[in-house]
Design brief:
Chain C: This is GPI-anchor transamidase. Chain C: Keywords: GPI-anchor biosynthesis, Signal. Chain C: It comes from Suhomyces tanzawaensis NRRL Y-17324. The complex is a heterotrimer of chains A (about 600), B (about 525) and C (about 375). Chain A has 21 helices and 13 strands. With about 600 residues, chain A is of the alpha/beta class. In chain A, β2 and β3 form a beta hairpin. The two termini of chain A are about 35 Å apart. By secondary structure, chain B is an alpha/beta fold. Chain B is built from 14 helices and 15 strands. In chain B, a hairpin with a 5-residue loop joins β4 and β5. The longest helix of chain B has about 45 residues. Chain C has one domain: 3-Layer(aba) Sandwich (Rossmann fold). In chain C, β10 and β11 form a beta hairpin. In chain C, α3 runs parallel beside α6. Classes of the chains: A alpha/beta (about 600), B alpha/beta (about 525), C alpha/beta (about 375). At the B-C interface, α1, α7, α8, α9 and β13 of B face α4, α5, β13, α9 and α10 of C. β13 of chain B pairs antiparallel with β13 of chain C.
């Protein structure tokens, strides 16, 4: 009691509270910097952990795989066949493959998704298993690079033959041949759990296999593992595959870092992998050229994509087959679902990771930054408390109105896109994107021109809107934090310029134009569609931001990815509310007070 | 306190009163209902066992048993006085040598009157040997191996020397009941048994399985007249009926090789089984000798070696009967055919071949059951065996009951169900009844069967199924079941109680204050 | 040729150096061996863990089953508790087999395996019941430990354990006190002559430290805070096939024959940290004999003392003849007096005890009522 009181008195005496309030924008900014700093610390030695297998039952690389040289010829044979019909329609290709699978004793069926070609899938019922669980090997006809998945199909056929000769399966094996790993695979997974007649029990794990025209040899394999909406496969599964690859002495890579880079395992390779990991997790589901593992998200299926890279290297095609085989053998050893190990993690290399407890504070810090700056906006704007009460209705109704617009857009825009004729899809998306960019430009830069508007917000409403929006973003990050860390963090960091606006409005009284330009720039760069435009152009040089925008608009419909809703109902309304506050906000202030304040600081 | 506050004051005291009543009610309920409830559901049921009775009985039962074995002397009229002098001579000598048997075991010499069956009763007859007729004649005795009768041959010189009672005493105490006295004395003194003897004896059971097995080393057909041989055996079993019962099975097993290979000895032109390899002769792994019956099994194996087909003998080294005994398990006889076996003929073992084997098995059966070695008469031996087994059974039952009580005292977690208690009582009941039959009627058969019952009941009490359940159910688990309830309830009650206490204290302080101000 | 023989020579020298057991001179052994005083041998072999990846536990226990059977303990005197059926697990690449070595030389599941308790029957309750022999009256004989004061019992446990507990079936666990108390009950009822207790789990030695009954010799594979390790994996079956402690035990026992005079201390010499990779424990303070005087076959085998030639003549003859020499016929003895039996009113076992669970449920229910009343 006494101690707390002395401390409180001391605090009061020194006037720490007003000082702290004045410093809130600085503190908030420090928090945002700290958040990035936190991320930078993670790849340092001692901050991350080495991967390990925590499920005893998996026992990776404890069994010999006999998918060796003798099978190589078989792979070659199938590849020759696959090569021959590369340019045939998928339906006729599927027929050939179906015949092969039938001859091994697989039960084959097609799934009609009504949009793309039918998806062939085949089931090998475990001869001695209890027929309640399954593992999936998905082999798209075209890889994520839009290459003909020649090696993949041939390898899958050879593996199918090899699997059918073994008696050790306790889980059924399903082979799926979708046209691509995007919508066709996703709709198959959905249909498998809802409408398909031919099923083989709950799917425990899935591997998507991509092996383009690499021939017999490849340099290294790359693994993709990001699921939709921040979901990740159980780390045990990845570790299992990685350990098997390691024991096969196969070079491997993740997050687009080539294997020779990643094997260096320096601070910078780890940082790069970490940041790319966050990036790809944020964007997962938004591209049509997906690796395919995210198609299994949401059904408690642990999945990853394995893709052969290069065509000269030390590794041969059977080694990749052995990775698939041994991983299946490990999963086969499981008795139930993956339940040990981590579901939330960030990989730094194939053998290092940070778990949720370690990386979570980064997003928490950003969230706090926004909360503090929201508080600062309320307390530092010189508006009295009563005035806020008076403006509350306007603030809330304005914000509500903006949200309502958001909701309308959230549903109407994807609807328009999806129902647009196929050939006009790109144009439609482009137009929508343009609209948003226009809005951005208009809102961001209109204050520069000092347009007289009939309608004006008073100061209370202006700062109230800014504070509410900042608080809204803070809450958004908090909610997303655990389920979709990457998205929360990225939104948080990209929206940080919004926190500068309120302090800048105070600065405006010193040097109006300069400050106004700064405000406009802050608004402009933190607009979600500006970010999307930049990112999209960077990621896809060909079709520019359109493809990312299209991904955003259609991903819910096609994959049940809710990133679009987060953007249009979370980030964009907050941005718009701040923008409108700036545009329509009253400028008249008590100059002297503001100047004094600045001088004293 | 100011006067306008009186209304609120009274309301408040009202509230206080209600609160106190509630706390009181809850408290009373907790103590009167909750506590017994928790106790009754968490405590293990432990029936009260008759500890005192068992301990006293276990310590003293030898003083409560009184064997008075009637022996009938066939004495001509006019010599009745001889009986009392013989009795005193017997008692004097016996209790001088074995004071521990005083009151516990004794002979009751009576004059043979009326019809007594020598199959049933101990009868002593006297035969006067005419010295004149035979110069070298000396006193003699003959214990009939077929009955319980004994004939003493007395010379006139013996009679004249007045040494008949001494002679009688020696015959009775040394020759007829010698083994019984020795064994009972050991039992009473709790002397350690000569280890080999007890190791051979199979633990007592009121019924045994007896399995006669013929084992051959190959698959050639073989026959044996075991049915007839068993008929010969039946009277032997029947003689034991006061002691125990038997259920008999026979089987032939082919392709039964012993676990150690038998070495051929050139010198003797036969296969010799050394004493060392005998201990592993029986092939428990391959020979199907398992009976799935709960009764203990006595096995009698006739092993028919393959060497018989070559006319070569298989001989157990240093054994004249070519047989051996496996302690607590049974007997084995290696059978060698006297005549060479003709090719392609079915081997059959005839009754007359089996007869000597059955003789061996009878002897082994007696050894396995722990019958005394003397006298020869099976009747007397079984009597002795029954009496000793009776004492042993009583001792064992009481020991089991004692162990049970000791266990229940040392293991606090173990439950003692009512069934256990009932079986303990039944066992004690049987023991007491058997005492009565022994002491009042000298009815050894009934006492024996009651002692077997007592043993059975004491085992049932000890092995009661329910006594396991709580043994591995730790008390933390019990607490864990109740903790979710005890926590909230306890805290509410505690806080209420605290509040009442504080109120009371405040009230008192107020009262003191008021007093002061007044 | 010369070269290869040289290699053989080298190998044998190495194997000697690695501490292959010195077979004891028979004469020498016989002079030192104290008699155990038992007449029959029993073995209780228990694996407690389920699931395919615990293959080695089943292999451990089946290996010992095979060994004690080979050394002469009859199946009726071996209680085998096998917690999972790995031989028929779909993951088994060699259906119907269990191997304890990657050379796959011996199929432990070969023929004549008599499993007394399988799968979910392997519970703590059944194990305690087995030791204390408390069963329903109709429990089959083959599933009971019908030992007496002349029985030597070898008890082997393997599974996943911890400090003073051993997990059964991933569900329940037995504590060291439970086993100690069960042994005490066996001792009180004179149900054993000597017990040899062997346990191969993590922190195994903690399991026997609570024993307090006499004549128990105990060994464990690892001390407190130590794991026990598997020996090697079979890369075709894809699992570890045997644990180190058991591997070295078997490795030694394989050289033992039924009539061997090798003593227990020679086996214990195998238990080195180099072999086991953990600290094996041996407890002898409860045991009355010197370990160097104990024959391995006192526990692992069924070597019986036999009595040769103490046969009495004519017993059968006098039993079935009258004094006058006529044979007692099959019918004549029926006329003999039958014994009267005294009847007892047996208690019915039902209705004596209300079930514990019922009581607890009632208690919780009533306490809940009280709680409601309070609120």
């Amino acid at each position: 009691m006494a101690l707390a009181e002395t401390v409180l008195r001391k605090v009061h005496k020194l006037g720490l509270i007003p000082k702290a309030i004045k410093l809130l924008p600085v503190i908030s900014f420090v928090m945002a910097i700290a958040s990035i700093g936190w991320l930078l610390v993670l790849p340092l030695d001692g901050q991350y952990r080495n991967t390990y297998i925590s499920e005893n039952a998996l026992m990776p690389f404890q069994v010999n795989s006999y998918f060796r040289e003798s099978e190589w010829n078989i792979v070659r044979g199938y590849r020759e066949e696959v090569k021959k019909f590369e340019y045939d329609p998928i339906s006729s290709k599927a027929e050939v493959v179906e015949k092969w699978l039938n001859s091994f004793g697989y039960i084959t069926t097609y799934h009609h998704n009504g949009v793309t070609n039918d998806t062939l899938y085949a089931i090998l019922h475990a001869p001695r298993g209890d027929d309640t669980e399954a593992m999936v090997l998905a082999v798209p006809w075209y890889t994520s690079d839009k290459e003909h998945n020649e090696g993949g199909i041939a390898l899958a056929a050879a593996l199918a033959r090899y699997f059918s000769k073994m008696s050790i399966w306790s889980k059924n094996i399903i082979l799926v041949f979708p046209e691509t790993s995007h919508y066709p695979l996703r709709s198959w997974v959905e249909a498998y759990h809802t409408s398909l007649d031919q099923t083989a029990g709950s799917i425990e794990a899935a591997i998507v296999l991509e092996y383009g025209k690499n021939g017999d040899h490849f340099d290294y394999y790359e693994m993709f593992y990001e699921g939709l909406n921040g979901q990740l496969p159980n780390l045990d599964l990845l570790n299992t595959a990685n350990m098997i690859g390691f024991h096969e002495s196969l070079p491997s890579s993740i997050q687009g870092t080539p294997s020779h880079e990643i094997s260096k395992n320096t601070y910078f390779t780890r940082l790069r992998t970490l940041l790319r990991g966050i990036g790809s997790l944020t964007l997962s589901g938004l591209s049509r050229n997906t690796p395919g593992c995210e198609a299994f998200s949401g059904w408690q299926i642990q999945a990853f994509t394995i893709k052969a890279k290069g065509s000269n290297g030390p590794a041969d095609v059977t080694q990749l087959g052995r990775v698939v085989d041994s991983t299946f053998r490990s999963v086969n050893n499981l008795l139930e679902k993956f339940h040990q190990s981590f579901f939330f993690y960030l990989l730094l290399s194939t053998r290092n990771f940070v778990s949720i407890g370690t990386y979570l504070p980064a997003a928490v810090l950003v969230s706090i930054a926004f909360a503090l700056s929201s508080l600062g906006a309320v307390l530092n704007s010189g508006v009295k408390f009563d005035e806020y009460i008076g403006g509350l209705t306007t603030i809330l109704s304005t914000f509500f109105g903006i949200e309502l617009c958001g909701v309308v857009m959230a549903f109407s825009l994807p609807y328009i896109t999806i129902n647009a004729p196929k050939e006009f899809e790109d144009v439609t998306v482009f137009q929508i994107l343009c609209q948003f960019v226009l809005i951005n430009v208009a809102v961001s830069f209109s204050p520069l021109f000092n347009i007289k508007s009939k309608y004006k917000f008073n100061k209370a409403v202006k700062y109230g809107l800014i504070a509410l929006s900042l608080f809204f973003i803070s809450m958004l990050i908090m909610t997303l934090l655990i389920v979709h860390f990457a998205l929360a963090l990225i939104i948080g960091i990209l929206a940080v310029p919004l926190t500068f606006i309120q302090p800048l409005t105070l600065l405006r009284y010193v040097n109006e134009n300069k400050a106004q330009i700064k405000i406009s720039l802050c608004l402009f760069v933190s607009n979600p569609f500006f970010v999307l435009f930049i990112a999209g152009s960077y990621l896809d040089a060909e079709s520019g931001a359109v493809s990312l925008m299209r991904g955003l608009l259609t991903s819910w419909h096609e994959l049940q990815c809710w990133t679009w809703f987060v953007v249009i109902l979370g980030w964009f309304p907050a941005w718009l509310a701040i923008g409108l506050g700036v545009v329509f906000g009253e400028h008249e202030v008590d100059y002297s007070k503001a100047i004094n304040k600045l001088k004293s600081s | 306190m100011t006067s306008p506050a009186t209304t609120t004051d009274s309301a408040r005291s009202n509230v206080t009163f209600i609160r106190r009543t509630i706390v009181a009610i809850v408290f009373v309920m907790l103590v009167s209902l909750g506590y017994p409830l928790v106790m009754s559901t968490t405590t293990v049921y432990r029936a009260e066992l008759p500890t005192q009775e068992v301990t006293t009985l276990a310590n003293n039962f030898k003083h409560e048993l009184h064997f008075r074995i009637p022996v009938f002397l066939d004495i001509p009229n006019g010599l009745e006085h001889f009986i009392s002098s013989a009795q005193s001579s017997v008692d004097e000598y016996l209790y001088a040598k074995h004071p521990e048997l005083k009151g516990f075991w004794g002979l009751d010499l009576q004059r043979l009157q009326g019809e007594k069956n020598e199959e049933e009763d101990y009868i002593l007859r006297f035969d006067i040997i005419d010295k004149d007729a035979n110069e070298d004649a000396s006193e003699s005795f003959f214990i009939s191996p077929f009955s319980r009768a004994t004939t003493l041959g007395l010379t006139t010189s013996l009679i004249n020397a007045n040494k008949v009672d001494e002679f009688l005493r020696i015959i009775l105490l040394d020759e007829i009941f010698g083994q019984e006295i020795q064994q009972l004395s050991n039992l009473v003194l709790e002397a350690p048994h000569p280890s080999l003897q007890t190791d051979v004896v199979i633990p007592y059971s009121p019924k045994y399985n007896v399995v006669f097995t013929l084992l051959t080393e190959n698959g050639k057909t073989i026959e044996w007249d075991i049915e007839k041989a068993i008929d010969l055996f039946q009277p032997a079993f029947h003689k034991l009926q006061h002691f125990t019962n038997f259920s008999i099975n026979t089987q032939i097993q082919y392709y039964s090789k012993p676990s150690t290979e038998i070495a051929f000895n050139e010198e003797q032109n036969s296969y010799i089984i050394t004493p060392e390899s005998l201990s592993t002769f029986i092939n428990f792994g391959d020979w199907n000798l398992i009976t799935h019956d709960i009764l203990p099994t006595i096995n009698f194996l006739v092993f028919f070696p393959e060497s018989n087909y070559d006319g070569i003998k298989t001989i157990i080294d240093k054994s004249s009967t070519n047989s051996f005994l496996v302690p607590q398990w049974g007997g084995v006889k290696i059978l060698n055919k006297d005549m060479p076996i003709l090719k392609d003929s079915t081997v059959s073992i005839h009754e007359d071949e089996l007869l000597p084997i059955m003789e061996i098995f009878t002897s082994q059966l007696y050894q396995l059951l722990g019958a005394p070695e003397a006298p020869k008469s099976p009747n007397i031996r079984v009597d002795i065996l029954s009496r000793i087994a009776f004492v042993k059974n009583i001792g064992k039952s009481l020991e089991t009951l004692k162990s049970l009580i000791k266990l229940t005292e040392s293991l606090n977690e173990i439950s003692v169900p009512e069934t256990t208690k009932n079986y303990v009582n039944l066992s004690l009941d049987a023991i007491k009844k058997s005492f009565a039959y022994l002491n009042n009627e000298q009815n050894y058969g009934l006492a024996m069967s009651l002692s077997a019952d007592a043993l059975k009941f004491s085992d049932k009490a000890f092995f009661e199924k329910e006594m396991v359940q709580q043994a591995y159910f730790p008390s933390e688990h019990k607490l864990a079941v109740f903790l979710p309830l005890l926590g909230p309830v306890g805290s509410i009650v505690f806080l209420g109680f605290l509040k009442v206490l504080l109120d009371r204290r405040k009230e008192k302080r107020d009262a003191v204050k008021r007093e002061k101000t007044e | 040729m010369k070269f290869s023989s040289l290699i053989v020579l080298c190998c044998s020298v190495i194997s000697l150096a690695l501490g292959s057991p010195q077979v004891v001179n028979t004469d020498e052994a016989e002079t030192v061996i104290a008699k155990s005083g038992h007449t029959n041998n029993w073995a209780v072999l228990v694996s407690t863990s389920r699931f395919w990846f615990n293959y080695r536990h089943m292999a451990n226990v089946l290996s010992l089953y095979r060994t004690v059977k080979r050394l002469g303990i009859p199946d009726s005197q071996i209680i085998l508790m096998l917690s999972d059926d790995i031989a028929c697990n779909p993951r088994n690449a060699f259906p119907g087999t269990v191997f304890n070595n990657m050379d796959q030389a011996i199929d432990l599941y070969g023929d004549l395996i008599e499993v007394d308790y399988r799968g979910y029957e392997v519970t703590v309750e059944n194990f305690v019941r087995l030791l204390t022999d408390r069963w329903d009256p109709d429990h089959p004989r083959s599933k009971r430990l019908l030992t007496d004061e002349n029985s030597n019992i070898f008890i082997y446990l393997t599974g996943h354990g911890g400090n003073e507990f051993l997990k059964f079936q991933d569900a329940d666990e037995i504590g060291s006190y439970d086993i100690a108390d069960a042994f005490e009950q066996m001792h009180e009822k004179k149900r054993y002559n000597e017990i040899f207790f062997m346990i191969d789990t993590c922190q195994a030695n903690t399991m026997y430290e609570r024993f307090y009954s006499p004549n128990i010799l105990a060994v464990g594979s690892s001390q407190i805070e130590e794991s026990s390790y598997s020996h090697h994996s079979d890369m075709d079956i894809g699992v570890a096939v045997i644990d180190r402690f058991t591997y070295y035990t078997l490795d030694f026992l394989e050289k033992i024959k039924t009539n061997s005079k090798v003593t227990m201390d020679k086996l214990f010499d195998e238990y080195t940290f180099e072999n086991i990779h953990s600290t094996p424990g041996i407890r002898t303070d409860l045991f009355n004999r010197e370990v160097k005087d104990v024959l391995l076959t006192d526990f692992f085998g069924n070597v019986q003392d036999v009595v040769v030639d103490e046969v009495e003549d004519d017993l059968l003859y006098i039993s079935n003849h009258y004094a006058n020499g006529t044979q007692i016929t099959h019918d004549s003895h029926k006329t003999l007096k039958a014994i009267n039996r005294v009847a007892f009113d047996l208690p019915s076992t039902e209705g004596f005890s209300t079930s514990k669970q019922g009581k607890i449920i009632a208690g919780v229910f009533l306490a809940g009522l009280i709680l409601l009343f309070l609120k």
